[in-house]
């Protein structure tokens, strides 16, 4: 019985570092010609002044940047390759997030090549009349098509960036909610162990009193 009680006490006080530690949250998204990112913890604390190293999929280091006081950072890619962002936050916390080549922003000031814009330019070129008399109306129509496609592309980028910036704090709130409930489950488990220990102690005491 003493061995059982000792084992229960040991289990009750056994720590769970990974479960109790705050989870690291890292996210990146394209914004204009740069990659913007944010690193923090699920409890709402942000990783300020943290060095963020940038690698490709083969582990070659491409550069690095530093987070500001809000945990945000920017990085301007020079190659159209997948990027892996890593930051060692100490105490065993490592932030890592990957951005695929398709998610990268425009590199080197390249012109946009969205399907809508390409299609509009192709239509404008095909509609160019052979006669000089009809050239002006055709060019005007083609120009309007390209302008409309470019406007839609810019609007799509603005909406995407706005949604991404709103999703980041929402994701952090969800992780914090999950962590809170994980902690409640751990504390509930510890209380259950103490309850078993109390019942075992009571039975042992009753037996000792009966034997006496």
From TrEMBL:
UniProt keyword list: Membrane, Signal, Transmembrane, Transmembrane helix
Signal sequence annotation: 1-21
Membrane-crossing segments per the record: 186-205
Tree of life domain: Bacteria
Protein name: Nickel transport protein
Protein species of origin: Afifella marina DSM 2698
């Amino acid at each position: 019985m003493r061995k059982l009680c000792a084992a229960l006490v040991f289990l009750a006080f056994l720590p769970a570092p990974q479960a109790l530690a705050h989870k690291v949250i890292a996210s990146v998204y394209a914004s204009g010609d740069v990659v913007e990112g944010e690193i923090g913890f699920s409890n709402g604390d942000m990783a300020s002044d943290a060095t963020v190293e940038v690698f490709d999929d083969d582990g070659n280091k491409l550069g690095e940047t530093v987070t500001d006081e809000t945990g945000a950072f920017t990085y301007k890619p020079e190659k159209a390759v997948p990027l892996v962002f890593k930051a060692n936050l100490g105490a065993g916390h490592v932030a890592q997030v990957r951005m695929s080549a398709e998610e990268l922003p425009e590199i080197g000031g390249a012109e946009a090549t969205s399907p809508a814009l390409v299609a509009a330019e192709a239509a404008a070129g095909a509609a160019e009349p052979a006669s000089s008399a009809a050239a002006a109306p055709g060019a005007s129509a083609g120009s309007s098509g390209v302008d409309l496609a470019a406007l839609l592309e810019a609007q799509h980028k603005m909406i995407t960036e706005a949604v991404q910036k709103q999703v980041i704090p929402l994701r952090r709130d969800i992780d914090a909610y999950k962590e809170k409930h994980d902690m409640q489950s751990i504390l509930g488990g510890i209380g259950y162990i103490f309850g078993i220990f109390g019942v075992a102690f009571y039975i042992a005491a009753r037996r000792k009193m009966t034997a006496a």
